[in-house]
Specification:
Layout lengths: L13 H4 L6 H5 L2 H10 L2 E5 L5 E5 L2 H9 L3 E2 L6 H6 L8 H4 L9 H10 L4 H23 L5 E2 H6 L1 H10 L7 H10 L6 H24 L5 H12 L4 H17 L1 H13 L2 H9 L4 H12 L6 E5 L3 E3 L2 E3 L4 E4 L1 H4 L34 H18 L4 E2 L21 E3 L3
Parallel strand pairs: 2-8
Antiparallel strand pairs: 1-2, 3-5, 4-10, 5-8, 6-7, 9-10
The chain binds protoporphyrin IX containing FE (HEM).
């Protein structure tokens, strides 16, 4: 509870707790570390991955406050000098640096406005039959395997990737390369690899835009090109960046949600039985699975543009702020017995999709994919079970995303 927390004007320094973040044990299960750090102080200094001054926000109320504070910026251009100071200047291609996720208003408002129409609940509703057909096709191909099959490779990854690639009309032959660049962008701690992948992705998407411009279709990319060419409301770099953001979001997030969700359900048989008894419970179940172990677990990075007093703690200007959505969603002062997966609980208000002006634009799509995907799996495979002990599941070693690298299951009873 808040009373047990350390006096907020005396935040602990990074030295005490630096070793606990981003270690083997943390990748496997970060929640015990979060719980300990949050109980001491919900906003605290840590050593950031790049070695510069950073603050991590672990409490629910504190995370909401940070995400809504206009003085805490997402603008990577404004943050360039912070990286320069730490000697880790990065040279990212426009593909990842001119997105709505990396800008503040007014640019953010304009960029988000242009993409919004594609992701409204009504627009996503029209995609549902196609999402279901893709999911059923993937489940069918898994059903052909008598032995263990990797649910991540065969289902959790190809489902959202196919959906987003179809939306953007990426030819089937190019999808494997896109997947490889996208996952390299998420490799922990190798700036050269990240830079190279970002440039390859940018080059590919510039070419794709050129092709669509010559030969428009009725896909989202053609619509965005029309919007750009009509009013010059999107620069060429912004257009390519938007396509990259949507592709990356489409590759790395829902995949992890589906993988973690299936693992959680298969290791909580009584919860799974309750869900199977009435699959109309799926939408609520997805919210609890997002709260309990969402994909954007540790950090959504931000930067203070001026000194900010956050939940009673003074952050200096130019500080890197990591808001841990995964920690916030297990704050016992907001969700009682937070470590317990309880599909019946009221999980609304969780922060798995963020909060404030950067709240996930793709949330309606992600929810539809998770709901439909899990529904197809549970219907098609009444005896679905893990092929090995859950402790042996390998987790992604990413500071941005949490999810199983692979998940071997048996589809036959
Ligand atoms: C932003 C989570 C799926 C598109 C965000 C943010 C979070 C998030 C936490 C805000 C980050 C921040 O404030 O720093 C998730 C989760 C997903 C998911 C957990 C799946 C379970 C998707 C999908 C798409 C998408 C499928 C689209 C294809 C976006 C976009 C933004 C965003 C465009 C930037 C919004 C802005 O800056 O205004 N997402 N996302 N997301 N997401 Fe998602």
């Amino acid at each position: 509870s808040a009373a047990a927390r350390r006096a907020p004007d005396q935040p602990p320094t990074g030295d005490e707790d630096g070793p606990d973040l981003f270690q083997d044990e943390w990748f496997r299960d970060p929640h015990p570390t979060y719980a300990r750090l949050r109980a001491e102080c919900p906003v605290r200094q840590v050593r950031s991955p790049g070695g510069h001054e950073a603050w991590i926000v672990l409490g629910y109320a504190e995370a909401r406050e940070a995400l809504a504070d206009g003085r805490i910026s997402k603008d990577v251009r404004a943050a360039g000098h912070i990286f320069a100071r730490s000697g880790r200047r990065r040279d990212l291609a426009p593909a990842v640096s001119q997105t709505m996720l990396a800008t503040d208003p007014p640019d953010h408002t304009r960029l988000r406005g242009l993409a919004r129409a594609a992701f409204t609940p009504a627009a996503v509703h029209r995609l549902r039959p196609r999402i279901r057909a893709i999911a059923e096709g993937l489940a069918e191909s898994m059903a052909a395997e008598a032995g263990p099959v990797d649910l991540v490779e065969r289902f959790a990854l190809p489902l959202p990737v196919t959906v987003i690639c179809e939306l953007l009309a990426v030819p089937e032959a190019d999808r494997a390369a896109l997947g490889a660049w996208s996952s390299r962008l998420f490799l922990a701690g190798q700036p050269e690899v990240i830079d190279e992948a970002s440039h390859q992705l940018a080059d590919y998407l510039s070419e794709l835009v050129e092709r669509r411009r010559r030969q428009p279709g009725d896909d989202l990319l053609s619509e965005l090109i029309a919007a750009r060419d009509a009013g010059d409301r999107l620069s060429e770099g912004e257009l390519v960046s938007l396509a990259a953001l949507l592709l990356i979001a489409g590759h790395e997030t829902t995949t992890n949600l589906l993988g973690t969700a299936v693992l959680s359900l298969l290791t909580h048989p009584e919860q799974l039985a309750w869900l199977r008894a009435d699959l109309a419970r799926l939408p609520a179940a997805v919210e609890e699975l997002l709260r309990h172990d969402g994909p954007v677990n540790v950090a959504t990075f931000r930067f203070t543009t001026e000194p900010v007093r956050l939940a009673g703690v003074d952050l200096p200007a130019d500080a890197v702020v990591m808001v841990s959505l995964g920690a916030a969603d297990r704050d016992p002062s907001r969700f009682p017995e937070p470590d317990r997966l309880d599909l019946r609980r009221r999980s609304a208000g969780h922060l798995a999709f963020g909060h404030g002006i950067h709240y996930c634009l793709g949330a309606p799509l992600a929810r539809a994919e998770a709901e439909i995907g899990l529904g197809v799996l549970l219907r098609r495979f009444p005896g679905l079970r893990l092929a090995g002990p859950p402790e042996e599941v390998g987790w992604r070693r990413s500071r941005l995303m949490r999810g199983p690298e692979s998940l071997f299951v048996l589809t036959r009873a």
